[in-house]
Structures are given as C-alpha cells and as structure tokens.
Amino acid sequence: MDHPRRILYCHCAFAQVIPKDVKQGVLERLADSGADFECVPDLCEMSARREPLLQQLSEQPNTRIAACYPRAVQGLFTAAGSPLKESGLEIVNLRVLNVDEATEALLQPAAAETATPEVPETPGSETTNGELS
Amino acid sequence: MIAPANLKVQVLLYERFPAEPFEAGLRASLLAGLLDGGYPVQVLRGESETTERDRGNGENRILLGCFGGQPPMDDGEHGFERVRDVSGLGRDEILSLVEEAMGEVQEAPVGRRWKPWFPVIDFDRCTHCMQCLSFCLFDVYGATSDGKIQVQNESNCKTDCPACSRVCPEVAIMFPKYKAGPINGDAVSDDDVRREAMKVDISALLGGDIYALLRDRSEKAKSRFSKERDDERALRERERCLNKLKATASGLEIPGEVLASLPSADEIREKAEEARRKAQQALALGSTQQ
Fold it and tell me: In this predicted structure, what is the pLDDT of residue B257?
C-alpha cells in the first residue's frame, strides 16, 4: 500500500546559512498550499539532543525534507540514532534552491502518483545537492 | 551529549472538519512565531483521517483549532491532552496561550541558549582512523565499545571551529551550519580529498602537534603583552599576535576565541596524550572486532 507523501520543513533557527527570504518564502508557500506538513525549529539542535520526535520522523516512508545538504541531513538523523528510511526519501536543499524551486520540489506529486514508472529509491538521486530532477 | 529534552512539546494546527481554516496570513505568521519559539509544529488539514502518528504522544502536544467556540474534542479525548479553541485570536494571543498551556509540562522552549555547532560524521566515508579523536582537545569525540568513532560531547565543541574536519583525511566530518562545502555537507570531490590529505601531511611535518606550536606562539605574544604599559597598545599587539596565529592556522580555521582560550602548554601536552591514548585504544579494539 502506498503511503502518502509527508513533508518536513527545518527552520534552521540558529544560523543564517539558509537565506532568510528562502526560509520565509517556503514556509509561507507551504502554509498556503493546503498540504499537510510538519516543521521543526532546528534539526541540528534536535539531533544533538537525541529528540524522540526525530525517531518518529525518521520512521515515516515517502518523506520530503526541506533543510540543507542531503549528506548533512542524513548524518544528523544517524547521529541521533534514528537513520532516515531511504524509501521514497527526498531532501530539498534550501541552501542552494530559491523559493520557487524549493516549493515546486516539495509540493510536486510523487513520481508514483503521476504514474511515472521509475521511482528512484536512493536519497540524492532525486533532489540531492539542490538539483531538481 | 547535550542534555536530552525531557519533553519536546509539539503544536498541532488543526484545520480538519469541524475546525475552520486559519486565515492565510495568520497561519504563516503563527508558524514562524512558534518555530522561533522552539516549538515543532504539525499542520493537519484536508480530508485525511487523523492517524496514530498524528496523535503521537498526546501528553506533549497541544492542538489549536478555530472551532467557533465549540471544540468537539475535550481535553484527553482522541489522544490529545490539550485542545484549545483559538477562534478570533491573533498571533500574539495564540503564542501566549501556547506558552501558558505548555508551561505545565516544559519550563521553557529548549535550546535557545546553545547554538548547535558540533561535528556530524558521514559514516559512508569515515574509516574510524581516530585522527579526529587524537586532534580534538575538548573531548568532543569518543569511541564506542567496539572501537568506532562517536561524537559524545557535542556541547564541548567550540562554536564556529571546524578544525577537526580539516584533519580528517576522508573528508568525513561535517558541520551543517558551516559556510562552505564540503564541510557543510556538500558533495565531496576528488580535489577535496587530495587537499585534505595534503593538510594532514603538513600537520605531520609540524610534529603532529599544531596546538603546541600555536600555544608556544601564543605564550610569546602574551609575554610581550605583559610588558606593555599602555593598555590600548597592548591590546592592539595582542590582536596583531592573534591574527598572526590565525594566519598560521588558517588552513584549520580555528577561531581566534579558541586560540586565545587554549590551555597551558603542559595541559595541552597532557590532553593530547590522553586523546592519543584513547584513539590507540579504540583502534586496537576496532582491529580485534574485525
């Protein structure tokens, strides 16, 4: 059975590494999109604190994460003892994408939902370093 | 490890029937306010059924909805411990309501004081060579019982110092909040690997003890500082010396504050020896496990 696509947004609260206008713009677009989504103040902080919520989030298949570089995001979950499920995982890099690109990557229908036969399973093969597929 | 949050409160913005949707402007502004306050938020709307995952642990969740004065779910019902009708309230009023409601289970939003700066290991690249453990004087690293590298004391890490990532020969150490790749998690190129390997060689040429070298230079700077009578001149001289030190260690990008706060030469030697001993133990343990 297909699981619905889940969206997780990281607000990267403690640093300016994600441009403020991108953070704000993506959050506003998500808020206005009508989609269900989750947001967290800062994945780094949650990882350092081994937040139980990270484990719940990591167990969800078919997740799109709006944060930073995929290697870093996966490392943060692994460091917290909650490695991400790779099935259907997509990481949207807000450090390199603009608001339009990031929002499109987050809200576009999943490949399976659009009847595209091949759904890449490997994280990074869809929206790794900010490159849109 | 940073003290784990005993209870991270999550806020649910509930817009499913029978709740009315939040006003568009209010929703985005409220989301930003909650995130800035340290609260994770889940937005539930549309036709979907509320799932077990949505309910989570009801004890540490608060559900906010515009129920027009008649919230259909009492506290405790449907797995949600706290349900609040926020019809007609503005952003600040809702934020105050959340603070008040969650004050019972959480003293204050956690993590507001510590910038989460710490190394994150890419275990697809790491070979558990323990160079980072040997290098770090601040006990950030340790080893697991089976001899694997582990970040154990995140809060000991010096904010904005990525030096350990510079000595990693495999470019396996990331600081996600660092400004540039590959330390920030960007893809690692062959050039990156070659460059980092060269830096390690330079470190070896210096006797493998960069901190001791830096410390010697720092001592000389301090000595000059103590002889100065004019405070302003002395301060300028100190800054000049620190800048020189920073230039010497520019490949490692150790912040001036870290250089200035280095312990005494004897303490450095002691800590370096202890770190090396730990690394050797971990390596020995790792080799017996293979």
Answer: 73
CA–CA dist A79, A132 (Å, integer): 27
Q: At what angle do helices A20-33 and B24-36 cross, to 10 degrees?
A: 130
Contact at CB, A56 and B186, closer than 8 angstroms: no
Query: Among partner residues B4, B48, B177, which is closest to A44 by beta-carbon distance?
Result: B177
Q: For residue B164, give its domain range.
A: 120-289
- pLDDT for the residue numbered A125: 36
Domain assignment present for residue B176? The answer is yes
**Residues B90, B160: one domain?**
no
The number of helix segments (H) and strand segments (E) in chain B equals 10, 8
| Average pLDDT score, chain A | 83
* Domains in chain A: boundaries: 6-107
- Average pLDDT, stretch A59-63? 89
* Summary mean pLDDT of chain B: 77
Where is the domain boundary, B54, B71, B102? B102
Instruction: Specify the range with the lowest mean pLDDT, choosing from A91-95, A118-122, B33-37.
Output: A118-122
Which of residues B74, B102, B130 is at a domain's end? Answer: B102
Spell out which residues of chain B touch residue A78, defining contact as CB-CB under 8 Å. 123
Nearest Cβ partner of B185 from A24, A27, A72?
A72
What pLDDT score does B117 carry? Answer: 94
The pLDDT of B251-274, averaged and rounded, is: 73
Query: Residue B58 has what DSSP assignment?
Result: G
B4 inside domain:
no
Look at residue B113 and tell me if it is in a domain: no
Distance between CA atoms of residues A57 and A123, nearest Å: 16
The answer to whether residue B2 sits within a structural domain is: no
